[in-house]
Write a structure and sequence with these properties.
single chain, alpha/beta, Rossmann fold, 2 domains, 7-stranded antiparallel β-sheet, Oxidoreductase, Riboflavin_synthase-like_b-brl
Length: 248
């Protein structure tokens, strides 16, 4: 998930591309080797800077897609056709190529595997990225924390991490989908936007006091957060990350 980069005091590090995985026809996971990386928490993000030969540079911020793994950092980048940064990262950026990164950034929208309360993850589109880092961190820690994911996406072809999410039930993560434009063959409901019924069916009751993480486009996040509040969830337990057009 991309955001506009925010200047900070962290130092830039030179990373190199170690591996790639295509997630959808327009989204790619980049595995970066970052010497001296201090580690990160699931939910944090990093700034990425590209510099042209003439000295012009462009920065974007991307959520980390996987828990800390030594000096490796995984980002999943959605290609935007007229963007400055994402077409390079998802296209010509090749194994061994350098890129500058800065982070980790953010300490509020994070999940720690020592937290005991159930977790509700609500993702819209590429907002799944930091939430997937939390799911993977839970698995890596061998945690038994109850997790539920409600993932709203336009079409089945645009589901990130599709194979991994199909296996999520094996590790105790309950996953449900809302398709807004096109549904899989045999899907019992027509395309629609997320609503109260979806959160009632795919979420936790408010009396369970779950930690709620909502991530996606601004309108989606506001809608989901409003529904959670209407269902009686504690506002202090609802953490949100939102994004909009960034020229990515």
């Amino acid at each position: 998930m991309a955001r506009a980069a925010v200047p900070g005091r962290l130092s830039w590090r030179v990373a190199r591309l170690a591996a790639v995985r295509d997630e959808t026809p327009t989204a790619r996971t980049l595995v970066l080797d970052v010497p001296g990386w201090p580690g990160h928490l699931p939910g944090q993000h990093v700034d990425v800077k590209l510099t042209a030969e003439d000295g012009y540079s462009a920065q974007r911020s991307y959520s980390v897609a996987a828990p800390a793994d030594g000096e490796r950092v995984e980002l999943t980048v959605q290609r935007v056709g007229d963007g400055e940064v994402s077409p390079h990262l998802t296209g010509v950026f090749s194994i061994g190529d350098p890129v500058e990164v800065r982070g980790p950034i953010g300490g509020w929208f994070v999940w720690r595997d020592t937290a005991p309360e159930p977790v509700l993850l609500i993702a819209g589109g590429s907002g799944i990225v930091p939430l997937m880092a939390m799911i993977r961190a839970r698995r890596a820690a061998g945690a038994r924390t109850p997790f539920r994911l409600l993932y709203s996406v336009r079409t089945p072809a645009e589901v990130y991490y599709a194979g991994e999410l199909r296996q999520a039930a094996l590790t105790g993560v309950e996953v449900s989908f809302v398709y807004t434009r096109e549904t899989p063959e045999g899907w019992p409901r027509p395309p629609k936007r997320i609503g109260v019924a979806d959160l009632n069916a795919g979420g936790w009751p408010a009396e369970f006091a779950p930690a709620c993480f909502v991530c996606g486009p601004t309108g989606f996040v506001e809608t989901a957060a409003d529904i959670l509040l209407a269902l009686g969830h504690d506002a202090r337990r609802i953490k949100t990350e939102r994004f909009g057009p960034t020229g990515t």
